[in-house]
Amino acid sequence: MTESSTALRIAGPARLVGEVTVTGAKNSALKLMAASLLAPGKNTLRNVPDIADVGIMSELLRRLGCVVDFDPATNVMTIEVPQTPGHIAEYDLVRKIRASINVLGPLLTRVHQAEISLPGGDAIGSRGLDFHIAGLEAMGAAISFEHGFIIATAPAGLRGAEIELKFPSVGATENIMTAAVLASGTTIIHNVAREPDIIDLGEYLIKMGAQIEGLGSPTITVNGVKELHAADHSTLADRIVTGTWAFAAAMTQGDITIKGGRADHLEIPLDKLVAAGAVITSTPDGFRVKMDKRPVAVDVATLPYPGFPTDLQPMAISLNAIATGSAIVTENVFEARFMFVNELQRLGANITVDGHHAAISGKEQLSGAPVLATDIRAGAGLVLAALCSDGVTIVEDAFHIERGYPNFAQDLRALGAQVEVI
Ligand code: UD1
């Protein structure tokens, strides 16, 4: 798919009813793929989502000498990792996905060097790397920036260290933890991210033979081992895709059963939906969200897990845009994440932004218009708003959405929406 060729055409309003199945999380699968570099031999990953970013990470691993095989019909991926992988990740791939930075820790600890082009990813804020760098330097790495590359070396290997993150960064926790598993001695990382993705990654590393304690708590302790072996692991269900469907049900006064969705990973977002008037019940393999009236506006503030996820912030703004009453949505994780508000205003939403707060006054119905998806989650938030709009909305640059939501248009149609890929 070329980057400008797809748009979604949505004819609203719609009421979404039916069942949808959630597969593995993008933000877990990409990290599991990168961590596979730690173990020579044939690693197997299951429940890998069939999305563009997985293809990009596969290509990155191939260029590092891995043999990657993915079957979209079964969602099973095998990654055969050589004894000595390469150490260079080029700009053409790295610029497309932020998660490419996750090869830094594994390469540095395994082959003692890494040259990684500075990553791109979504346009949602400045997304520094200073915590990643400080942590790896504390473990003995020498790191410099040259010609747009991070050049990292540790000729004698990494050694354990005690590290305190200034903010519980997901990416920095992952890079430092994956570097620590093959370092000499013990690494203690304080103020780590506690997202389920981190636990999923830690469990994969433990299956490879890593010694890790404290996953899911604010401090992780890693005892370095000499080598790791290939492992078999199933990717955690995508909590952001799950949350998106839950918001879709609430916003469209619908009734969606989300198969494979983990309500226990979405406690605060689901509490917000209940406060907005939704009825949520568990089912044998997921949960059901039912709404029979217009949502009531709810205040939301994003925070690291277990707080309200920043990746569901656009959905929260969209919900408030069609709710009764008014609410404030506060973004505490990424500073530039209100860019999509301008697009939502094109649908008639009543929103005022002041710094990292957005004040939203709900309207009974929005009105369809052409809009631009600026990143994955903003794109999904616009689609939900389009479903609550009168007339046709064209969401341009929908390739962003497809990076995070496999079969989005197809799933929406199966739930009763009028959606076409154009
Ligand atoms: C990951 C997710 C992203 C999600 C985010 C927060 C992936 C590929 N992306 O991004 O979808 O929104 O977690 O849940 O998994 N920061 C620094 N210095 C650093 C690292 C981070 O200042 O060295 C800042 C960032 O600019 C941001 C905040 O810390 O303001 C959180 O970033 P982080 O948790 O690292 O997010 P990512 O891992 O980039």
Keywords:
binds uridine-diphosphate-N-acetylglucosamine; UDP-n-acetylglucosamine1-carboxyvinyl-transferase, Chain; elongated; alpha/beta; five-stranded mixed sheet; four-stranded mixed sheet; 30% helix; 2 domains; 25 strands; 422 residues
Tell me what you see in this structure:
With 422 residues, the chain is α/β, with parallel strands linked by helices. 30% of the residues lie in helices and 27% in strands. The longest helix has 13 residues. It folds into 2 domains: 201 residues, Alpha-beta prism (UDP-n-acetylglucosamine1-carboxyvinyl-transferase, Chain); 209 residues, UDP-n-acetylglucosamine1-carboxyvinyl-transferase, Chain (Alpha-beta prism). Uridine-diphosphate-N-acetylglucosamine binds next to α5 and α6. The site of uridine-diphosphate-N-acetylglucosamine (UD1) has 22 residues, from α5 and α6.
Short description:
Helices cover 30% and strands 27% of the residues. The protein is an alpha/beta fold and 422 residues long.
Sheet bearing the most strands, described? 5 strands, mixed
- Average per-residue pLDDT, rounded, comes to 95
Number of domains: 2
Helix percent band: 25-40%
Oligomeric state of the chains in view: single chain
Radius of gyration: 21 Å
Strand content: 25-35%
What is the CATH topology classification name of the largest domain? Answer: UDP-n-acetylglucosamine1-carboxyvinyl-transferase, Chain
Small-molecule binders: uridine-diphosphate-N-acetylglucosamine
Q: Let me know the CATH homologous superfamily of the largest domain.
A: Enolpyruvate transferase domain
The outline comes out as elongated
What's the architecture of the largest domain, going by CATH?
Answer: Alpha-beta prism
The total count of helices amounts to: 14
Which stretches are low in confidence, meaning pLDDT under 50 for 5 or more residues running? Answer: none
| Number of strand elements | 25
Structural category: alpha/beta
Our measurement of the CA-to-CA distance between the termini, rounded to an integer number of angstroms, reads 12 Å
CATH class of the largest domain: Alpha Beta
